[in-house]
Design a protein that fits this description.
Number of strands: 7
Order of helices and strands: HEEEEEHEEH
Strand content: 15-25%
Helix content: 40-55%
Strand order of the largest sheet: 4-3-2-1-5
Number of helices: 3
Radius of gyration: 17 Å
Shape: globular
Structural class: alpha+beta
Number of domains: 1
C-alpha cells in the first residue's frame, strides 16, 4: 500500500514536470518570435540589472528587454527568459550577478498578488508596443 502511494506520488511529479516542459517549449516559441520582431523593429537591448532580496540592485552579465514595470522579468538578447529577483547582498552589489535563464511559463506571476500577472503573450506585446 505504501509503495503504491509512493509510486503514485512519483508519477504525479513526473507528469507535472512533463507539463512544465511542454508549457516552457510553447512559451519559448513566443519568446523566439518576440526576439525576431524586436530586432526587426529596432528595439535596443539594455544592460539588465538584478533585484537583490535585500532591496538593492546589481549589475548582471546580460543584456535584454525588461517585460514588466517592476523590471523583475526580462528576455535576454538571445531569447533567454530571466527572473531578475535573486538572492545576494553586499558582495553581489559590488561584483554583480551572473544570471541563469529560467524555464519560461505561458502565465506570468501565477498566484502573485502584485498586479503584474497575466499571459506571457500580453507582456511580450506590451514590450513591443512600448518600443
Amino acid at each position: 500500500m505504501a509503495s503504491q502511494r509512493a509510486e503514485d506520488a512519483r508519477r504525479r511529479i513526473e507528469l507535472q514536470e512533463q507539463d512544465r516542459r511542454r508549457e516552457g517549449a510553447a512559451a519559448q516559441q513566443l519568446i523566439d518570435e518576440f526576439v525576431v520582431t524586436a530586432r526587426e523593429r529596432g528595439l535596443v537591448t539594455e544592460p539588465l540589472r538584478a533585484q537583490l532580496l535585500d532591496g538593492h540592485t546589481a549589475k548582471t552579465d546580460r543584456r535584454g528587454w525588461y517585460l514588466n514595470a517592476s523590471r523583475s522579468l526580462a528576455i535576454g538578447e538571445n531569447g533567454e527568459y530571466f527572473q531578475l529577483v535573486v538572492p545576494g547582498g553586499f558582495k553581489e552589489r559590488l561584483r554583480g550577478v551572473t544570471l541563469e535563464p529560467s524555464l519560461p511559463s505561458l502565465h506570468i506571476g501565477r498566484g502573485g498578488r502584485d498586479g503584474e500577472t497575466g499571459y506571457l503573450k500580453e507582456f511580450l506585446s506590451w514590450r513591443l508596443d512600448a518600443g
